[in-house]
């Protein structure tokens, strides 16, 4: 029988506490953004394409880690029986999604810099005209290649069905790091994701306003705001 105490400590309690609150909020933001990108030209920009991919990566990372810890308790025999695949997958996922999400943060930072500082450069204009599939490729493929080359260890196994602790070869480059941060996995894994919904809400007023409107169903107000924005732009051009 797998010991619950052996797989959960105070860091897991903090993680699942935040997870229960933030995951529904983040998923709502993701669905609203996905819907807005199909109906509102304001959200069909490169920045929101990157933000959409980044939100998806956060949601997958949070969900995978939660599934991993819960599955260790509910289906330990299945996990141990399929350890040749699952042990390495769960172990490597932690590093994979840190790299992927860090890449997303870097892309959004570079995009903002180009828009604000180099808005008229040819490179900046090309970035602004990027298609969604190109954004998807740039977001996922380089990070996935880097993960596959430097942060994939297929030799990971579990010690026993009772403990399900990772057994790592001493020569692996990740061993020392794993030993040092093992107890802080939940917080390290969740930190990048937990702060994202708050930054999205605080620093993207247009998106926040649209989400609030979609939730409350104030369609008339949206139309009025859109008309006001169009009128303001026309007035600026005329002057």
UniProtKB/TrEMBL annotation:
Keywords: Membrane, Transmembrane, Transmembrane helix. Signal peptide: none annotated. The chain crosses the membrane at residues 12-34, 46-68, 88-111, 132-151, 184-204. GO terms for cellular component: membrane. It holds the Pfam family 7TM_GPCR_Srv. Gene3D superfamilies: Rhodopsin 7-helix transmembrane proteins (1.20.1070.10). PANTHER family: CARDIOACCELERATORY PEPTIDE RECEPTOR-RELATED (PTHR24224), G-PROTEIN COUPLED RECEPTORS FAMILY 1 PROFILE DOMAIN-CONTAINING PROTEIN-RELATED (PTHR24224:SF12). This is G-protein coupled receptors family 1 profile domain-containing protein. Coiled coil: none annotated.
């Amino acid at each position: 029988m797998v010991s619950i105490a052996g797989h959960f400590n105070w860091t897991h309690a903090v993680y699942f506490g935040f997870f229960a609150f933030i995951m529904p909020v983040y998923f709502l933001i993701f669905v609203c953004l996905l819907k807005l990108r199909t109906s509102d030209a304001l959200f069909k920009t490169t920045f929101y394409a990157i933000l959409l991919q980044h939100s998806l990566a956060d949601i997958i990372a949070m969900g995978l880690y939660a599934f991993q810890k819960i599955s260790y308790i509910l289906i330990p025999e299945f996990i141990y029986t399929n350890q040749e695949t699952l042990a390495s997958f769960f172990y490597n996922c932690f590093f994979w999604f840190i790299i992927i999400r860090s890449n997303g943060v870097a892309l959004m930072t570079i995009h903002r810099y180009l828009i604000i500082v180099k808005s008229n450069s040819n490179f900046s204009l090309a970035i602004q005209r990027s298609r969604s599939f190109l954004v998807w490729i740039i977001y996922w493929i380089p990070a996935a290649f880097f993960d596959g080359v430097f942060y994939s260890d297929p030799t990971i196994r579990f010690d026993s069905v009772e403990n399900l602790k990772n057994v790592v070869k001493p020569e692996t480059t990740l061993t020392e790091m794993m030993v040092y941060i093992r107890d802080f996995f939940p917080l390290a894994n969740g930190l990048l994701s937990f702060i994202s919904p708050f930054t999205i809400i605080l620093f993207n007023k247009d998106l926040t306003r649209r989400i609030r409107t979609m939730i409350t169903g104030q369609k008339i107000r949206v139309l009025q705001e859109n008309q006001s924005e169009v009128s303001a732009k026309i007035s600026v051009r005329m002057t």
